[in-house]
Amino acid sequence: MQIPWPASDRKKSECAFKKKSNETQCFNFIRVLVSYNVTHLYTCGTFAFSPACTFIELQDSYLLPISEDKVMEGKGQSPFDPAHKHTAVLVDGMLYSGTMNNFLGSEPILMRTLGSQPVLKTDNFLRWLHHDASFVAAIPSTQVVYFFFEETASEFDFFERLHTSRVARVCKNDVGGEKLLQKKWTTFLKAQLLCSQPGQLPFNVIRHAVLLPADSPTAPHIYAVFTSQWQVGRTRSSAICAFSLLDIERVFKGKYKELNKETSRWTTYRGPETNPRPGSVSTTPHTEHSLHTHNVHEKTPIMA
Question: Are 268 and 164 in contact (CB under 8 A)?
Fold first, then answer.
């Protein structure tokens, strides 16, 4: 069964006016499609570079047509550009999405919408994400949601731009700050994912990640596919690396880096221990402490 949901003629015209292709880009590419409840699906699309979302009603196993008056803005839930990578997962009636938040594709965002909790997003001014962040997966856990992505490593000052794979974490019960981070995440943390073999160039670009629960409930693992930004000879190789969720949780409790606003450089925090720690899970709003950390996690690669 098919139901049409094309971009409106007005949005197509605006898209073409902004120098996008009427033949390949100015359409509605579906980027989010999740089961919201027993009677509705929730979907979002690029909508001719003007992201839009809507609920699709299910009646006797049939999809009812989409009403134009029920279409909502989808900024922060779907990318503008169909070529941009994105991810989204529905958890407890709330949509957690990682995508680009602007027309130019230079403002990555992690956002929570729908459900009873307040809408939250990353703070673009604080540069928690590099402007070229590319999201590949979102995986919920008991108290948190993990986002997997790659971005340019701003903490390294190399001659060549270095791609780095990351895992970010936000807490499900985050309600935002009272003063400094209103409607923003207060539990955002990110760590570097390392996938390498001795004597070889690292596989530093993550392509996808999935959770494979183990027989024991205490040892689930994330399996992720990586490639390298470098090519040796005429061949390109890839790898699958396994990451224990327990190891990832342990890293987020370890040492972290902070941004020096005067030098714009990341340095390991060596001051006195703070309580609560930056980014810690809490049932009350965080207001007074720094929230952006950067940790490193290592694992054993499985070659593919």
Answer: no
Dihedrals φ, ψ of 17, to 5°? -65, -30
Q: Would you give the distance in Å from CA 81 to the centre of its chain?
A: 16
Chain segment 17-69, per-residue pLDDT in tens: 999 999 999 999 999 999 999 999 999 999 999 999 999 999 888 899 998 88
Whether residues 132 and 168 share a domain: the answer is yes
Dump pLDDT digits (tens) for 70-87.
899 999 999 999 999 999
The total number of residues shown for the chain amounts to 304
Q: What is the CA radius of gyration of the chain?
A: 20
How far apart CA 244 and CA 221 sit, in angstroms, is 4
277 and 181 assigned to the same domain: yes
Give me the domain span that covers residue 136.
Answer: 85-303
pLDDT on residue 273: 80
Same domain, 61 and 25: yes
Q: Is the pLDDT of residue 153 over 90?
A: no
Do 74 and 107 have their domain in common?
no
Residue 111 and residue 96 in contact, taking contact as beta carbons nearer than 8 Å: yes
Q: What does the alpha-carbon distance between residue 261 and residue 125 come to, in Å, rounded to a whole number?
A: 12
